[in-house]
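for the writeup, i need someone to sanity check this before i put it in the appendix. the sequnce is what the collaborator sent (i think, or maybe the updated version? ugh). structure was predicted straight from it, no edits. if anything looks off just tell me and ill rerun, i have time this weekend
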Amino acid sequence: MCFGTMLHLPITRLVFAMDDTYGGCAHARFENAPPRHLSRSIEIAGGVRRLEACKLFADFLATTREEFWLTGSASHFRATVDAEIAAHSIQG
């Protein structure tokens, strides 16, 4: 998702399951935005259905043949997904 696009549209709420630690900016600070956007307010709710999203993503990673996901370019996603699923497995 492009956060800049949200600033130009009448979007007031962003809901997502997993942070994009590699390139996401859902937690960007508005004070760094151009002056015309400083009056905007976007409610951000992250982590919604996170475990379910991690399981779906793990299924995808186990079956994909796309080079981007296999070569290590997206290793941070795999590590995040694996850690989240492992943490919930330990907790029961």
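The chain has a mean pLDDT of 81. The chain has two domains: 3-46, 50-91.
thx in advance!!
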